[in-house]
């Protein structure tokens, strides 16, 4: 019993780190205790960050925990040598060391995460159209509402928020292997768009328009699905604000979308085969929409109400 | 000077009969230890209430959509003895609110701060004993408001402890009482923090330099600085949200906002403004 506290202080960091490593490497019985399988290109860099920070923390936890355990073991007054612990008022060198090390780690992390953050939240993917580089236009406008998800697919014109949008609730089917941009808006309160498998999370604030993007490197197929969750408390039904997401190859996606067009939009007309020039003009129209400022988004809302 | 005041108020023998002596010693106390204990014991009562709410949350998580034994039929007659989603939302909101604003803050600052600061820096009492008393008694309107909120439409605030608009603005009237309660807690903490700052800076015993102060006092000193400078921001934001709800101003409501077939009376505000103002205090605090 004499050594109870020192043993406890030895056990906590060791057991903690062992549990963490078992979960991270999927060792039984913690086979599915860590993150779900990544479905996106960004997932690799985000997971590397997540695991790297955990590994760093576990080194620190082991270091400090074992140091405390060792001190308690060594200076246990009921021990055999019955030495009295020495009293330090302070030790400048020691204090500088334990201030500098965390500072260095924090600065390192600040730079280490920069690339991933920029790629996933700041630099929206671009596309080459006739030699000109433009931002990828949103493929789907996501409207979050209490307690469900509306998905407005850009119709034949390739622009969201127009008459030929295809409207679907709580099911988002998207092609894998391409840069997908979503335009996120809320109908009422704050929601948050979260797809754990894509490592994608974005708050949706009423009165603002946000864009989120990802590039999935895996397919679920039409028979399987991943889930879109709301992760910002939006009222009593927050728990059930879930939608299905399916990632498929391009032909399957196009076939599926055509099916939805006929099913949901009876007035939809097949567009005439358009000349490249016309297509170009449309892309430009799309881009001008994309470049719209917040004030523009407000105007858009008003337009919609008029419609 | 301050010490002399403290003696007159707290430590001197009080005249009058037993009842008035009891009231002025233990109820309207100006003695730092008594006030510390007052904070401690009222927080412990709220600790119990917050714990009961947490039990409700845990019950629902452990056995979702099941009748709650013994008290279920009495509490949730409408939903057949089960916790409804609305009630669950209220439970975790009120649990968090009570644990943070009525337990952690009053215990750490109010109870330990009042009890320990004068003892650990060798002061006779706090610098402002009457302000100290006021800071405790401003907790009581907060207690009253939060109790009343349980009986107003909505039956307890249900927008999370962060009370994000627009959700909080569309909530039942209970949310207004919640905001009012938080305003009172804020005022109480601000008064306390001024007191701690003045006491720590001005009333240290001879030889107790700032860098000889115990770490505990340094911790409380830094907390008090945060409370004195960041809490007014939160308190102002709370009043702004209250006016969004009651006076239909539009600080935190965007244009053209509609929810559950109701349109907001006002707009033109910025939803994120609340989050900036709220976390200005709450981030350093938590």
How does this structure look, described?
The complex is a heterodimer of chains A (307) and B (286). Chain A has helices spanning 4-25, 41-74, 92-112, 114-122, 250-264, 276-290, 294-306, and strands spanning 126-129, 132-135, 140-145, 148-153, 166-169, 171-175, 179-186, 191-195, 200-204, 210-215, 226-230, 242-248. With 307 residues, chain A is α+β, with helices and mostly antiparallel strands. Chain A folds into two domains: 4-80 and 90-121; 129-306, Immunoglobulin-like (Sandwich). In chain A, strands 5-4-3-7-10 form a five-stranded mixed sheet. In chain A, strands 6-12-11-8-9 form a five-stranded mixed sheet. The longest helix of chain A has 34 residues, at 41-74. Chain B has one domain (31-285): Up-down Bundle (Cytochrome C Oxidase, Chain A). Chain B is 67% helix and 1% strand. In chain B, helix 3 (32-62) runs parallel beside helix 6 and helix 10 (215-246) runs antiparallel to helix 11. Chain B is globular, with a radius of gyration of 22 Å. Residues 1-11 of chain B have low confidence and may be disordered. The chains are: A alpha+beta (307), B mainly alpha (286).
């Amino acid at each position: 019993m004499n050594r109870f506290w020192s043993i406890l202080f030895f056990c906590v960091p060791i057991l903690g780190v062992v549990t963490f490593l078992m979960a991270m490497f999927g060792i039984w019985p913690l086979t599915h205790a860590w993150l779900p399988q990544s479905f996106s290109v960004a997932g690799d860099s985000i997971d590397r960050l997540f695991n790297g920070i955990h590994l760093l923390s576990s080194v620190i936890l082991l270091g400090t925990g074992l140091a405390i355990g060792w001190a308690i073991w060594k200076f246990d007054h009921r021990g055999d040598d019955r030495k009295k612990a020495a009293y330090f008022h302070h030790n400048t060198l020691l204090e500088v060391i334990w201030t500098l090390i965390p500072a260095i780690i924090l600065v390192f992390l600040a730079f280490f995460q920069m690339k991933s953050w920029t790629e996933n939240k700041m630099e929206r993917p671009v596309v080459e159209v006739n030699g000109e580089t433009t931002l990828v236009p949103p493929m789907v406008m996501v409207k979050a509402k209490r307690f469900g998800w509306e998905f407005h697919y850009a119709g034949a014109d390739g622009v969201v928020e127009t008459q030929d949008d295809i409207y679907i609730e709580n099911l988002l089917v998207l092609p894998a292997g391409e840069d997908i941009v979503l335009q996120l808006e809320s109908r009422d309160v704050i929601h948050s768009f979260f797809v754990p498998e894509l490592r994608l999370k974005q708050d949706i604030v009423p009165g603002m328009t946000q864009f989120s993007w990802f590039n999935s490197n895996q397919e679920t197929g039409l028979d399987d699905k991943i889930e879109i969750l709301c992760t910002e408390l939006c009222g009593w039904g927050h728990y059930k604000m879930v939608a299905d997401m399916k990632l498929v190859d391009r032909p399957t996606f196009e076939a599926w979308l055509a099916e939805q067009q006929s099913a949901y939009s009876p007035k939809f007309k097949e567009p005439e085969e358009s000349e490249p020039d016309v297509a170009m003009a449309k892309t430009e129209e799309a881009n001008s929409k994309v470049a719209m400022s917040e004030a523009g988004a407000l105007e858009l809302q008003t337009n919609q109400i008029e419609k | 000077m301050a010490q002399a005041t403290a003696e007159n108020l707290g430590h001197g023998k009080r005249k009058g009969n037993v009842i008035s002596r009891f009231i002025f010693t233990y109820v309207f106390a100006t003695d730092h230890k008594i006030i510390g204990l007052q904070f401690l014991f009222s927080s412990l009562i709220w600790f119990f209430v917050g714990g009961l709410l947490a039990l409700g949350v845990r019950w629902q998580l452990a056995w979702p959509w099941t009748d709650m034994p013994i008290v279920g039929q009495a509490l949730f007659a409408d939903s057949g003895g089960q916790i409804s989603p609305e009630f669950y939302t209220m439970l975790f909101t009120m649990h968090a609110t009570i644990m943070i604003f009525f337990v952690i803050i009053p215990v750490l600052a109010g109870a330990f701060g009042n009890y320990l600061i004068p003892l650990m820096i060798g002061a006779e009492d706090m610098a402002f004993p009457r302000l100290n008393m006021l800071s405790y008694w401003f907790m009581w309107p907060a207690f009253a408001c939060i109790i009343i909120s349980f009986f107003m439409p909505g039956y307890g605030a249900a927008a999370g402890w962060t009370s994000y608009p627009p959700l909080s603005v569309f909530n039942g009237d209970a949310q207004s009482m919640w905001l009012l309660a938080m305003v009172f807690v804020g005022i109480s903490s601000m008064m306390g923090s001024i007191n701690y700052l003045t006491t720590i800076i001005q009333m240290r015993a001879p030889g107790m330099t700032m860098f000889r102060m115990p770490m505990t006092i340094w911790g409380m000193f830094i907390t008090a600085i945060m409370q004195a400078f960041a809490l007014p921001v939160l308190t102002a934001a709370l009043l702004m949200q209250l006016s969004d709800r009651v006076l239909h101003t539009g600080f935190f409501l965007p244009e053209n906002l509609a929810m559950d077939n109701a349109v907001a009376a006002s707009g033109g505000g910025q939803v994120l403004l609340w989050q900036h103002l709220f976390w200005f205090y709450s981030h350093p605090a938590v």
